[in-house]
# Entry
Amino acid sequence: MGRLNLNKDFYNSISAEYDSMVNSDSIIKARKNILKKFLDENCKYAADIGCGTGNDSIALSLNGINVTGFEPSEDMLKSAERKAVTYEQKIKFVNTSAGKIGKEYYGKFDLAISLGNTIANIKPSELKTAFKKAYMILKDEGKFLVQVLNYDNIRKENKRIVNVTGSGDKLFLRFYDFYTDRLNFNILTINKNNHQEYNLITTRLYEYKKNELAGLLKTSGFKKISFYADFNLNPFNPKTSKDLILIARK
# Structure
């Protein structure tokens, strides 16, 4: 097991290679089409909470939405800013965690999103505040769209290897460490030409479940909350669904 990194440090460490590891161009193209389903004619302003290197922010912007991205990792945010320029998209990026979004953003957005398992990186002691901030930055009738992994299914399958990808001279191995009371997420980066050159980083993920998230969203003020297995809005099954998609309305 690698040394456990603070979450922000973990993402700062991988920021330079993150887009190569996940193939961001493909993600942006796919997300543009996916997110279009959740945009009605009245949706003009959106917040991307935990925007990372900006893939979802750019996807929203390509759909004609005015986007503000919030991200605690300074280095991930720098990548997002550079990529937005490459895609010729004008996006505002703010270096802050979800729970510290400023009051100047209250009531500003028609839609808030937090995709790519972002909330699993937020400590339980901080998630209630993060959800309250999501509620406060939305306009009346605004929607909050969340994607998180289904940890019931991950625990059931007990597969340590998440993915193996490559780019240039690098291999990226993403894998879990399973413990009774916690789940660690690792990224091992290996030089294809010299396997003795490698780097392992590790952080903790928080295994939020449907009922816990529903309770926190209701406590934060959200009224109507719906749960799905995917972005096609198929029914959620805790035993078999890969993802848990939540749509909460203010």
The chain has a mean pLDDT of 94.
